[in-house]
Specification:
globular; 141 residues; alpha+beta; 5 strands; binds coenzyme A; single chain
Length: 141
């Protein structure tokens, strides 16, 4: 496997990977590709994929950066690894490759978007991330 910058030609594969990684049954591939494309178009240089020898894509990370008064933040919108390729260190390597892409910017705060799902919390804990005090609110009409 290798980790490489995501290309526009990877959009369909990453959309399918999204559906597989979250075991989504009630959404279309078209919808998933539209979602992935939104963030890919936002900052393509902050998107990476895991490419296997046969060309298939088994992992992806979609990030973007922004700068505020306290410096640079690297936001991780999505980190997805195919169920059949988990526990091989791909998730960890994708986070590390994304962080390297901003290492020339000095100190960067890295913030993954995480649902209160214990296994993902454990994943980020194992990479040294600490839970912060941000609370999320939702309203649905
Ligand atoms: C979370 C996810 C990306 C992890 O990918 P992965 O490639 O299996 O993770 P890695 O193999 O790189 O694991 C890295 C470390 O986290 C640990 N880890 C991975 N998944 C874990 C889990 N579910 N629970 C606890 N620890 C976990 C591993 O043991 C490993 O620790 P180590 O370095 O001490 O051995 C993957 O399970 C996934 O795609 N989940 C569905 C999508 C999702 O929820 N994404 C996160 C939203 S941002």
């Amino acid at each position: 496997m290798s980790i490489s910058p995501m290309q526009a030609a990877d959009l369909d594969a990453v959309g399918q990977l999204y559906l597989d990684a979250y075991a989504v049954k009630d959404w279309s591939l078209e919808g998933a590709v539209r979602y992935v494309k939104k963030f890919f178009d936002f900052e393509p240089e902050r998107c990476r994929v895991v490419r296997e020898e046969d060309g298939s894509i088994t992992g992806a990370i979609l990030g973007f950066t922004f700068e505020r008064e306290k410096g640079m933040t690297l936001f991780i919108q999505e980190l997805i690894v195919a169920p059949s390729a988990r526990n091989r260190g791909y998730g960890k390597k994708l986070v590390s490759a994304l962080r390297e892409s901003t290492s020339h910017r000095g100190k960067v705060r890295v913030k993954p978007l995480v649902k209160a799902d214990t296994s993902v919390l454990n994943f980020y804990n194992s990479l040294g991330f600490e839970r912060d005090k941000v609370v999320s609110f939702t309203i649905e009409d």
